[in-house]
Amino acid sequence: MNLPLLIARRMARPAPDNRPGVMERIAVVSVALSIAVMILAVAVVLGFKREVSRRLTGFAAHVTVTDIRGIDALDSRPVRRTAHLEELIRSGEGVVSMAPYALKGGIVRTDETVEGVMLKGVDSTYDRSAFAEWLVAGAWPRIGDSVRTKDILLSRTLADRLLLGVGDRVEMLFVEPGELPRRDRFKVSGIYSSGMDEMDNAVILTDMRNVQRLSDWAPDEISGYEVFLRDPDEAPRYARELGRRLLYDEADGTENLAVTSVMERYPGIFDWLRAHDVNAAVVIGIMLVVAFFNMASALLILVLERTRTIGLLKALGMRNGPLRRIFLYRALFITLRGLAWGNAAGGGMCLLQRGFHLVKLNSEGYLLSEVPVALDWGWWLLLNAGFVAVIVLLLLLPAHIVSTVRPDESIRYE
Questions:
Q1: Burial level of 184, CB count in 10 A (0-12/13-18/19+)?
Q2: Is residue 337, in this structure, part of any structural domain at all?
């Protein structure tokens, strides 16, 4: 029989005419608020990291292979498609898919406004799962058909500014240095919204053959390849290994190629996301300190309220160790009650935000138009277990007050 646990459970049962003390209630509320804030902080930080990374890779993939002279350029030097080059890209560990693409900077002009955009051409092998999720009107452009079409997919923000809808035709201008602007007309087949206005304001998708024709490229000339990996965190490693293989490869078509991960293309965004880890750690640390001091105060009051009981148990032969465990069990019961309420509150707010998007953001400052949350059993259980372990370990110090109680004095105490 675990005698300290049995006594702690008996002490935790309030008498019919006795209600939990004020300090005990404060401790429960403190634990509930602390764990709720921790859950929200971790869920939002992980949500930001996952959503921004996922949406960025929807536009730019995990890794890109381009001509070294045209990195981050709209009108880059063409890369020649070869079976050998594509085999080198696919041979890397963790590759899920690979697709060619072509870019062309242009200007969309209507009677009301003018917008600078990036026309991105893709073929039928392009992974369009992200854009299929973001599609809000119309359909995916007809890409890769035997007959080239001039369908385009543009964002809702661009469509609203240009006053365009599905089925409308729009004129685009393409300016080359020293040449007259080239004009072309396209048809809006669909409208998407990723929630990242910075990217939505620029990217328009179409058939890759349209971009190749506007750039006067041959059918085997492209801007580069987009590579999707099984594990996005492996993008820097894969980029280094592929870059090394291309550097020492002597076949035609692999010279002057650069391999960049999405982390290298957008270092400012990923540094900003890593800074959120520090913010979450600070919030968790502050909440642990608040919960500890409230729990320590509650524990001390519980000890003082049971001074005679402690003296009696010592007189009957119970040592200080089991006595300390009695009050640590009592503190654990309070912590678990607070955890139950805190998980209900924190988890409920996360579910409300994920389902109804109640809290909005300024996408110019935060990249996203709403606060994202990530809910996983793994970190949730780890956070709860870690919280309980840390609080109980910290309470070992105030629990030592039990050893200062003297039976000869406490039993006489009225």
A1: middle
A2: yes
